[in-house]
Amino acid sequence: MPKVDVTAVEPKTLGDSIRLLFSEDSNPAAISEKEFDRSGLSKVILREGAARTVCVGLGEPEDIQARKISQAVGLGTKELLKIGAESIIVDLTSLPI
Question: What are phi and psi of 77, to 5 degrees?
Fold first, then answer.
């Protein structure tokens, strides 16, 4: 099992990352609504050079619960570990916390 470190970093820090998006958020550039609709636990992987980002949908903001956030982070982590990530940044900037 990989080691987990929790550290505050800027979201634009280079590296493999997980980005959580609500249904009302905009898709990242070059990703169509057909590919990724941001519904609950939908996902898409973006590659920018050596960095990879797994975008995970959270659905409607009014339906958000801690459990869904945990599931989304777990899903993103699993996807990144499958493709060889050694360090993962979780971008929580879209959450109302």
Answer: -60, -45
Q: How many CA atoms lie within 13 A of 47 on its CB side?
A: 6
Give the span between the Cα atoms of 18 and 3, in whole angstroms.
Answer: 17
Per-residue pLDDT tens digits for 38-73: 999 999 999 988 889 999 999 999 999 999 999 999
pTM over 0.90: no
Spatial CB neighbours of 5, under 8 Å, sequence gap ≥ 6: none
Scan for tokens 């879209």, then name that residue: 94
Q: Are 41 and 71 in contact, with CB atoms under 8 Å apart?
A: yes
